[in-house]
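Pilot study result, target chain (138 residues):
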Amino acid sequence: MSAHAITLHLPDILLKRFQRRAEWSHRSLETELLDAVAAATPVEDELPAELLATIEGLEKLDDAMLWHLARETMPRQSCETLEVLNARHRDSGLNRAENAERSRLLHEHERTMLLRAQAASVLKSRGHDISGLLIFPS
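Predicted structure:
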């Protein structure tokens, strides 16, 4: 894959935010910015067919099922394991088995978040107030 250099003028507040993220994660500013751009880019053509079919099928679900999906989270144990593996990945690296488990959990997390977001979007398009979904438990 080829790379292209560009000039990007960032407001100070954004620059500082990305610099803090880069410092916290022990990564370069460029890597943080590339990750943000990649995360904001639609990936419909990169999604597995099964997941695309699930997303497209959300429109057919009733509101109760959509609310259930919009509130769904990964199991606590999976989240805790992913946290540990992410910290170890950042600090000292992972062996092959740990890396495979981290990849599997990241995939599960991304799938859960994507389905939550899409279910919330369908609910909003149906006129529901979804602001309660943005409040995180303490």
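One observation from the pilot: The mean pLDDT is 88. A full batch analysis is planned for the follow-on phase.
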